[in-house]
Amino acid sequence: MRIDKEIKWHVLLCCALVLSLTPIVFALSSSFKELSEAYSNVFGLPQHPTLSNYVQVFSRLPLVQITTNTFLIAVAVTIFKTVTSTLAAYSFVYFDFRGKNVLYFILISTIFIPFTVTMIPNYLTISQLGFRNNIIGVILPQLSDATGIFLIRQAMRTVPRSLIEAARLDQTGHLRILGNIVFPLVKPAVVSSGIMFFINSWNEYVWPVLILKDKANFTLPLALQLFISSEGGTDFTIAMAVSVITMIIPLVLYIIFQRYIITTFTSSGIKG
Amino acid sequence: MAYGFILPSLLVFAVFMFYPLFYTIYLSFFDWNMIKPVKAFIGIQNYIALFQDPLTYTVMKNTLAYIAILLLLNWVAPYILAFILSFVIKRGRGFYKSMFFLPSVISLVVGSILYLWILNPVSGPVAIIAKFFGITIPIWSKTQGLVIVVLSIITTWKVFGYNFIVLFGGIGGVPQEVIEAARLDKVPLHRIFLDIVVPMSSATGIYVFVMTIVQGLQYVFTPIKVITQGGPDNASSNAIYNVYQEAFTLYHTGYASAFAIVTMALFVTLLIFEFKYVEKGIHYEN
User: Fold this and answer.
1) Contact criterion met (CB < 8 Å) for A205 and B107
2) What is the chain B residue with the closest CA to A142?
3) Which structural domain, as residue segments, surrounds residue A104?
4) Given this model, what pLDDT does residue A270 score?
5) How close does chain A come to B146, measured CA to CA in Å?
6) What CA–CA distance (Å, rounded) separates B153 from B141?
7) B48-57: long-range contacts at Cβ-Cβ below 8 A with a sequence spacing of 24 or more?
8) What is the value of pTM for the model shown?
9) Closest in A114, A122, A254 to B102, CB measured
10) Is the pLDDT score of A58 beyond 70?
11) Which of B10, B24, B91 sits opposite A117 (nearest CB)?
12) CATH number at residue A86
């Protein structure tokens, strides 16, 4: 009786999952079809698998350069955000200083500021610095992250203060405490924040599209946009190949680190 | 020492968040196109023009439509899913959690291009299935109203999993015994959800509610930009896209700034609402 009821729910949930995951399977499968087969054999797996879409992408676009750009931006953003967020989170948890709570409140509130409010001045700043059409211009405004500070702070609050106080009595410096005592205990939160920084930067579209103008400086999402036309277009199997190239790295990272990521975001819900 | 640890973050926020915020307010009182060497001070003319422009009302009406659909798909739906996974089914929780989260790591540009093809009215898979049943798919990207629904669905594909995981965490704080007792008393599932689970996880619930609106409207920018550019006839433009359009296509820098500030004022109202209830909830839970 009980089991029967549960099966009904499982059927429903699996239908929802199929709906949400089918687009990914379709993209993968179509990227290995010739254009004519993509139209004649929409649902099936490729009958005559071909790499021609991937080959064509590389001949049409400086894809190695574009992937490198995407990667460099994501790595720089991830390193900076992780370091600055961890340091800030540490000081919000273990230091007492004037205006701490107000400052924390202000920093976290920035999560609610839409990008349209900052984009015009930031565009002007980056232009004045001469970093327009340059990946440094994409990286610069993203060197710290309010969500990161929030998530890492939540994890640090679970580390007993007595541990830190004992270390302070032994004259241990804060950087050493952070590195040797606190970091090992909050590693899951720091790692999953880092992974999310990387994935979000990899996927980012709005800011790079304002800053980067030449194809050679593009990131993958910008390159993908070149293949979008509202009719679907004749380049559609090639667009699928670019889609696959764009999503493969985030998917692999997610599959490797999913346990960390799910745990961290679930716990962010518990604390609001 | 404490300031030393915060300084790097503070510097970044000061230069790329707080300064721009005030500079945008400043710009909203000027007539400027980003290129002219002189900005002309025009007082609150941009704000007056904004409230007199019929386009503002179209855009705000669309924004409300987006908010309603996004709340349904990215707040109500994942809330119910999180409830089912937490209390109704016993097996496969870990599997469902990781699978439902999976699309949220994929670029929305990828999402846009995939759905553009899947929902292609002539040759896409959905059109082929519909044709089998004798139904024709409308050209949704050119249909008023429908275009907002489809763009919201594309955005949902990315946002749903994240909201679901956060809500799952929030619901995890509701004691299992309370639910078990209610189920033994044969309380219907929807009553358990509405009368027990929602009130007991309201802090997370309101947080996701606000994030669905504030970030959802920003996420939906990507499919708007790559698929419709706000069309047909501004039918899919929202408050976020309209600012982008005014600023970087029409170069109405001052007017765009004023529009951005008005949008933010709407968000701040929500923020006050959020902190009034959520922060209270957090103190309670601690």
Assistant:
1) yes
2) B12
3) 26-270
4) 60
5) 15
6) 13
7) B49/B255, B50/B255, B50/B258, B50/B259, B50/B262, B55/B234, B55/B242, B56/B259
8) 0.91
9) A254
10) yes
11) B24
12) 1.10.3720.10
A232/B123 Cβ within 8 A:
yes
Question: Does residue A1 form part of some domain?
Answer: no
Chain B residues with CB-CB distance to A179 below 8 A: none
Q: How far is B194 from chain A (nearest CA, A)?
A: 19
Q: State the CB neighbour count (10 A cutoff) for residue B158.
A: 23
* pLDDT at residue B286 in the model: 32
Nearest to A91 among B5, B97, B103 (CB): B5
Q: Is the pLDDT of residue B10 over 90?
A: yes
Q: How far is the C-alpha of B82 from the C-alpha of B77, rounded, in Å?
A: 9
Give the gap in angstroms from C-alpha B36 to the nearest C-alpha of chain A: 13
Question: Which residues share a beta bridge with B41?
Answer: B30
Q: What pLDDT, on the 0 to 100 scale, is given for residue A97?
A: 86
Whether residue A21 lies inside any domain: the answer is no
Domain boundaries, chain B: 63-238+266-285
Tens-digit pLDDT profile for residues A181-236: 899 999 988 998 999 899 999 999 999 999 999 989 999 999 998 887 655 556 88
CA-nearest of A73, A71, A79, A77 to A248 is A71
What are the beta bridge partners of residue B40?
A: B31
Tokens (6 digits) for A29: 């499968």
Domain count across chain A:
1
- Are A120 and B203 a contacting pair at CB < 8 A? no
- Interface confidence (ipTM) of the complex: 0.90
Interaxial angle between packed helices A236-270 and A2-30, expressed in degrees from 0 to 180 and rounded to the nearest 10: 140
Between positions 134 and 173 of A, the ones with CB within 8 A of B are 140-141, 143-144, 146, 149
A84·B12 Cβ contact <8 A:
yes
- The CA-atom distances, in angstroms, between B252 and each of A164, A221, B222, B235, B236 are 54, 27, 21, 21, 20
Q: DSSP class of residue A130?
A: T
Please calculate the CA angle A234-A241-B228 and round it to the nearest 5 degrees: 55
Task: Report the CATH fold assignment for B63-238+266-285.
Answer: MetI-like fold (1.10.3720)
Least confident range of A127-141, A147-161, A218-232, B53-67: A218-232
Nearest-CA residue of chain B relative to A270? B170
pLDDT in tens, B255-271: 999 999 999 998 788 77
**B274 is written with which tokens?**
């959020």
